[in-house]
TrEMBL record, chain A:
Pfam family, one: ABC_tran
Name of the protein in its database record: ABC transporter ATP-binding protein
Top-level taxonomic group: Bacteria
Electron transport among keywords: no
Every ABC transporter domain range: 19-250
Xref: InterPro entries: AAA+_ATPase, ABC_transporter-like_ATP-bd, ABC_transporter-like_CS, P-loop_NTPase
Alphabetized UniProt keyword annotations: ATP-binding, Nucleotide-binding, Transport
Sequence similarity: Belongs to the ABC transporter superfamily.
TrEMBL record, chain B:
Regions of compositional bias (Polar residues) in chain numbering: 1-15
Keyword Transmembrane helix: yes
UniProt-recorded name of the protein: ABC transporter permease
Superkingdom of this protein's organism: Bacteria
Transmembrane segments: 54-74, 94-122, 143-173, 193-216, 223-241, 279-298
Disordered: annotated segments: 1-27
Pfam families named in the record: ABC2_membrane_4
Keywords on record: Membrane, Transmembrane, Transmembrane helix
UniProt lineage: Bacteria, Bacillati, Actinomycetota, Actinomycetes, Micrococcales
Keyword Transmembrane helix on entry: yes
PANTHER family: INTEGRAL MEMBRANE PROTEIN-RELATED, MEMBRANE PROTEIN
Length: 334, 304
């Protein structure tokens, strides 16, 4: 128990999944906030839980943390079923749900003290030190005795993170952890997440700001209007490389590309990609398994009389994929 | 107290060690859960250090002070007018505390109890801290119990504040001597003070039923003012019903029925009959509304 190793060997056979849900559903009256999601969060992963506003991320997390009873479906957190109570696994879970929350008239340290006192598994002998360490870890050491009502948004967010770090955790559930943080703060959160992942902790992090978590996630799931539309390793999710050709002769270009074995995306699979630029229409074709010699593509296009104004080989960003999966519309779905 | 199954020893070994980023050595995870008194200690310290609680207690302390100063400044007090015990103050300052209780019990005291009891769960919900306490995990039943204990502690503090402040200001402004009881006997200052403490206990117990009602309303909402107002309205309604002879059959069941029934403690020999009756009545309210609060809180979706 003394060596700061990765996960200590456990007596009971533990599931390979830190979080597992089957048909997890939550209805509010007639509205379905979470529509039967099947999550599988591997232990040791940094799992991005993505989705636009109102897609059901926080509601899902509330169910996993035992705050809200599911309408149907089941879920296990660290091998323990949430219907029989997550009380005995929650001490091993650090969480930040729907933003931080504190009693404004208490200092940051006093607020953490309160949460830590509520945890019967947290030894009171080390409480002071653990609180000081957690505050230092998020860069709030100097503001520990300041009343929370005098904290800025980002300081509250950091204090919320400190609350999740009070005890050694097997699982960290962070709902929008970078909300309100300055660029340094965001970077610190990313490096904090990385350091925890390196220590063997599973990190489940929700966000709608992909760019912020893309860099740290090993896995991701995408939620849209309460339904899970994609899930898997990040590389699998981002999609395959594709070529982008800007040309006025779109039809001819498509024919050539198809002959070469590339899969032309007739209707752009992702709505974010412009179908036309100032230079002319755009043809997109995924490279896939075609094994085509990419150096020869332009040759062949030009040879076939296609006027090529632009050519690029691109790896779709997760952001493109995200928008493709969840729709480009700005309006909240419901 | 024990609300959740004790974790097996095996689980603690599964806790990942040494995650603390800033400390080189690992913080050893607790091998098992402790008794959990820390939550009660933290609740009491937050409650009684809170400025609002201090203001409520200060307002309660102001009642005997106002009474004593007003009587001291007025040249003559006509006997038989105003609340009970008021006319005795000029002879014996020790009566200030009891007189102030009689003045405070119908409205002022319930007002402060309503504020504290109505805030218990709803206040945490409105701050959003309820979800973090539950994820700590505090345990829902345990948290409710601790919250009720906090409200009960406030009942004791409130009653004591009035009696102690009254006795002190009375001793300061008026003569102090052996106290004549309602039965005509006279007791020493020491015994009178003990009896005043018993009265404070009677009043504190009197407020427990109302605290349980407040706790229940507090589990229904995340708007603390709503729970506070409803609880106070209940106290007022109970007293109005208690004054209506048409519903005399209901009177013994009203939680405010014996709020002023501490006169028995000022007789020789002392009678504990009303004290016991009142305690049973209040216990009944605590059980019923405590059970309602528990039933509600154990299944409540925490969405705040
Ligand atoms: N208490 C509630 N009562 C009714 N509907 C609710 C309630 N809480 C959430 N919802 C609905 O459930 C859906 C999902 O909400 P949720 O908070 O889980 O979204 P989210 O993905 O966390 O969004 P965001 O990115 O804005 O935080 C929303 O449509 C919302 O309107
Ligand atoms: Mg959310």
């Amino acid at each position: 128990m003394s060596a700061p190793e990765r996960t200590a060997p456990s007596a009971e056979p533990t599931s390979a999944l830190a979080i597992e849900t089957r048909g997890l559903t939550k209805r509010f009256g007639s509205q379905t906030a979470v529509a039967g999601i099947d999550l599988a969060v591997p232990r040791g992963s940094v799992f991005g839980f993505l989705g636009p506003n109102g897609s059901g991320k926080t509601t899902s997390i509330r169910m996993l943390m035992g705050l809200v009873a599911p309408s149907s479906g089941e879920a296990q957190v660290l091998g323990s079923d949430i219907s029989t109570g997550v009380g005995d696994v929650l001490p091993r879970v650090g969480a930040l749900v729907e933003g931080p929350a504190f009693l404004p008239f208490l200092s940051g340290a006093a607020n953490l003290n309160r949460f830590d006192a509520a945890d019967r598994w947290a030894p009171s002998a080390t409480r002071r030190r653990r609180i000081a360490d957690a505050l230092d870890a998020v860069g709030l050491g100097a503001a520990a005795s300041k009343k929370v009502h005098a904290y800025s948004l980002g300081m509250k967010q950091r204090l919320g993170l400190a609350g999740a770090l009070l005890m050694p955790r097997e699982l960290l559930v962070l709902d929008e952890p970078t909300n309100g943080l300055d660029p340094q703060g965001t970077r610190e959160v990313r490096s904090l997440i990385r350091s925890f992942a390196d220590g063997g902790t599973t990190v489940f992090v929700s966000s709608h700001l992909l760019a912020e978590i893309e860099q740290v996630c090993s896995h991701a799931a995408v939620l849209s209007a309460g339904a899970l539309v994609a899930q898997g390793r990040l590389e699998e999710l981002a999609g395959e490389a594709r070529v982008r050709v800007v040309t006025p002769d779109a039809a001819a270009a498509s024919t050539v590309l198809t002959q070469l074995g590339l899969a032309v995306q007739t209707t752009p699979a992702d709505a974010a990609a412009p179908v036309a630029t100032d230079a002319g229409p755009v043809v997109l074709a995924s490279v896939g398994e075609s094994g085509v010699d990419l150096d020869r593509v332009v040759d062949r296009l030009v040879g076939a009389g296609v006027r090529v104004r632009g050519f690029a080989l691109e790896q779709p960003s997760l952001e493109d994929r995200f928008v493709a999966l969840t729709g480009a519309g700005f309006d909240v779905d419901h | 107290m024990s609300t959740t199954e004790n974790a097996s020893g095996a689980e603690s070994s599964a806790i990942t060690a040494g995650l603390h980023p800033s400390s080189g050595e690992s913080v050893a995870p607790a091998p098992r859960r402790g008794v959990g008194w820390a939550l009660l200690a933290s609740e009491l310290s937050v409650l009684f250090r809170r400025r609002r609680t201090i203001a409520l207690l200060a307002a309660l302390a102001a009642i005997p002070i106002l009474i004593a100063v007003a009587i001291r400044l007025s040249s003559s007090t006509r006997a038989g007018r105003g609340p009970a015990f008021l006319d005795q103050i000029t002879q014996n300052g020790l009566f200030v505390g009891v007189a102030a209780l009689v003045v405070a019990i119908p409205l002022f005291l319930p007002l402060t109890i309503g504020v504290v009891a109505g805030d218990t769960i709803a206040g945490e919900a409105s701050h959003g801290t309820l979800r973090y306490l539950l994820m700590a995990p505090a345990g829902r039943a345990r948290l409710l119990l601790v919250k009720f204990a906090g409200a009960a502690a406030f009942c004791v503090a409130a009653a004591l504040t009035v009696v102690v402040a009254g006795t002190l200001i009375g001793a300061l402004l008026f003569p102090v001597g052996p106290v004549p009881l309602l039965s005509g006997d006279t007791v020493s200052v020491g015994e009178a003070l003990l009896r005043f403490l018993a009265i404070a206990a009677f009043v504190a117990i009197s407020m427990l039923g109302m605290s349980a009602i407040g706790l229940f309303f507090s589990t229904l909402t995340s708007v603390p003012v709503g729970a506070m107002a409803t609880t106070i309205a209940f106290a007022v309604a109970s007293q109005i019903l208690d004054a209506l002879p048409q519903v005399a059959w209901l009177h013994p069941w009203l939680f405010s029925h014996q709020w002023l029934g501490f006169a028995d403690l000022l007789r020789q020999p002392i009678s504990w009959q009303t004290f016991g009756d009142n305690a049973v009545l209040q216990a009944g309210y605590v059980v019923v509304f405590g059970a309602l609060a528990l039933a509600r809180f154990l299944t409540k979706d925490v969405l705040s």
